[in-house]
Design a protein that fits this description.
This protein is of the alpha/beta class. The protein contains 8 helices and 13 strands. α1 packs across α5 and α2 packs parallel to α3. It binds NADP nicotinamide-adenine-dinucleotide phosphate (NAP).
């Protein structure tokens, strides 16, 4: 199969791209670094593509920016898919986006809505945060050696396992909204960050911070973990961390 991976150099996208070639399929990378800007549509050509896997992202805390990004990327992909006769649009979304009012999630909701309303047969997989998310958070909210970490229940899953699951779905016909994918167990974000700092020999203090407002409440009350009917990855955060370089 000829499989296009939009965002195929990102945290999960690079694993999707690896899985495509490892399983003997033809990879088409859709990223700016590969000369394709999915916001403007520049360089986008899906000739001969069977399936598009959308794992693009833009880090933002602003709802307007999130909606502009996911709206433009999705509209451009769907339009190009129709021209090229692509049979399957598969997108990775996030568990809990309809009940947690985060700015970024408004973009993800728009993305889901456009895909569902489009003409191209689709599959939507919602997953929980990746193991890598603890590292990403560490880089964003810090003041010198002090790391402010949200009080958050989550159920982290290995990005590599999410990618494998996405490719399994890509090789099947479009299936609509499929069961959510979570990790093997719940973890507290502060514990994950502390373990990461210890593993990498980094110093610093971790200060758990209850994020105010409705999105902070959703972080604490289990909105972002899977419910009944979900499927689960196998690799725990501790197992994933043991594979990461030390120091
Ligand atoms: N991170 C999590 O814990 C998590 C959990 C569940 C679901 N998700 C979802 O999974 C998806 C991927 O997340 P991620 O964390 O793997 O993202 P990421 O690491 O930030 O990677 C983003 C990818 O998008 C590409 N991209 C950005 N702007 C682009 C543009 N204008 N045109 C073409 N490509 C563009 C980037 O490549 P270039 O910079 O080269 O363009 C990169 O390959 C997102 O939709 C996210 O909502 C994430």
């Amino acid at each position: 199969m000829r499989i296009a991976v939009a965002g195929g150099t990102g945290t999960v996208g690079r694993h999707v791209a690896d899985a495509v070639t490892e399983r003997g399929h033809e990879l088409v990378l859709l990223t700016r670094s590969a000369g394709v800007d999915l916001v403007s549509g520049e360089g986008l050509d899906l000739t001969g593509v069977d399936v598009v896997v959308d794992v693009t992202s833009k880090m933002t805390q602003k709802a307007a920016e999130a909606q502009a990004f996911f709206g433009a990327v999705t509209r451009n992909l769907l339009a190009a898919e129709q021209v090229a006769g692509v049979r399957h649009h598969l997108v990775l979304s996030i568990v809990g986006i309809d009940t947690s009012p985060s700015a970024y999630y408004t973009g993800k909701l728009l993305q889901e809505k456009l895909v569902q309303a489009g003409e191209v047969p689709w599959t939507i997989l919602r997953a929980t945060q990746f193991h890598e998310f603890a590292t990403q958070i560490l880089g964003v909210i810090g003041v010198g050696p002090l790391h402010l970490i949200p009080v958050m229940r989550n159920e982290p899953v290995a990005a590599r396992e999410v990618a494998g699951h996405l490719l399994d779905l890509a090789l099947k016909p479009a299936a609509g909204r499929v069961p959510d994918l979570g990790g093997p167990q719940e973890e507290k974000m502060v514990d994950m960050v502390r373990a990461y700092l210890k593993h990498t020999g980094r110093t610093g203090f971790v200060l758990p911070v209850p994020v105010p407002g409705a999105s902070g409440k959703a972080m604490r009350n289990g909105t972002l973990v899977t419910g009944p009917g979900a499927v689960h990855g196998r690799q725990t955060y501790a197992q994933w961390l043991a594979e990461q370089p030390q120091g």
